[in-house]
Design brief:
Blueprint: H1 9-16, H2 20-39, H3 50-65, H4 72-88, E1 98-102, H5 130-142, E2 147-151, H6 161-166, E3 174-179, H7 186-195, E4 199-203, H8 209-216, H9 221-234, E5 238-245, H10 253-265, E6 268-273, H11 289-299, E7 305-306, E8 325-328, E9 334-335, E10 342-343, H12 352-362, H13 377-388, E11 397-398, H14 399-413
Parallel strand pairs: 1-2, 1-8, 2-3, 3-4, 4-5, 5-6, 6-7, 10-11
Antiparallel strand pairs: 8-9
Helix pairs in contact: 1-8, 13-14
Bound molecules: iron/sulfur cluster (2 copies).
Length: 424
Amino acid sequence: MKTDLFDNIEDDIFETYSETEEIDKIKKIISVAKEQSKLKKINITREVNELNKFLILWKNRWKYGLHKKPGYELRIIKNVLLGKTYYMLGYKKYVLRGIEFACTFKCIFRCNHCLCARIDETNKRKELEPKDYSRVVKEAMALGATTFGLEGGEPFVKKNWDEIINSWQPHYNHIIISTNGYLFDEEKAKRCAELGVDTINFSLDSGYSELHDTFRRKKGSFDRVINAIKLSKKHGIKPLINTVVHKGNLYTDGWRELLEFTHREGILINTLFAKGMGNFYDKDALLDEEDLKAYKKIVAPYPNVQRHLNFNYGKQFGCPGMKEMINMTPYGDVMNCANMHIYFGNVLEEPLAVIRERALKKSPFGRYHCCFLAEDRDFMNVYYPILSEKRKGEGYMRIEEFLSSLKEYENKNNKILYPELRYH
Ligand code: SF4
Ligand code: SF4
């Protein structure tokens, strides 16, 4: 039985605030958010303007998709044409868009929904060095990749974060950093601009500072991230907002204020649906059918809202994991995405192309699909229970473990979920 998302929120409040006045204020804000989440009332304050939506969508595609780097546009055009051709002809081939590298699992925050601690093995494994990144980036570029992302944990706690980016041919490729923004100051903004960083994804949970700070369990984190967004703009780097949508924020004024903020500022907002991991594992946080319908209505007037499943070269909509995007741990383990802790191989032991091919053939990620972790109930019924049995520091699973549980589940429920898998 899942517990209410707002249970234990007092612990987060006391962790974040110490003054009685502040505590009373946040308690009131949370009580309103709790009531709104319970009532599930959809409150829309902006009209849907289809023409405006269409124009902004294309403006954002140019703004965030094209970068003034030698030959970049030509590489993108080639990739789109190739990806679309493979898809239309029904070939099981995909053009790689990029890799997200978690350069460290360390962070200055201790958000209780964090997924990193469970697979943090830095005390016993060697982290990749710039020379390793340089080789992997070349291998990825041979598969079509043009985008490379630095993430964590919190990437700015990694001392040589800039050396790592420098090893990715940053004046030729599209470079993204994903950060909570807390350590991002003028000096870092300048360094990012010098290096050729194009986009910075900032995590922002609410348009209300108190809710963001409580969720992050760090007082002042909202003000810092807002300042970081200003600094990135000042230095010619495109800011983007990453936000997690769950049952506890979707219907709230704070989340609508976040949509309004990004609309006013002309910033793209990437909505990530909550996964059953971290603090959300035993909480009623994941969006159900009713919430998904409500989500569509709530975001309809906001053309800046996107999901990362919308931008494939092949099929327009679908999970990009392994086909077009790859995620990598600081130790070189290859995963579908930051939330999917199934390891397919290690780039210090095998070429990237071999590992990717294995993942495409031996896992369900060789198809464009809805989000496996937030929308595919059968997949979730197989994956999350295995994960819950894992211990901290050994939180990943091997593909064989996953396949064996999948087979058991299929037999028990008398259905075949992914017929394309070779073990059938
Ligand atoms: S800011 Fe991100 S990496 Fe840091 S603890 Fe929170 S969720 Fe984890
Ligand atoms: S499983 Fe979900 S979160 Fe992961 S890459 Fe696919 S769509 Fe994205």
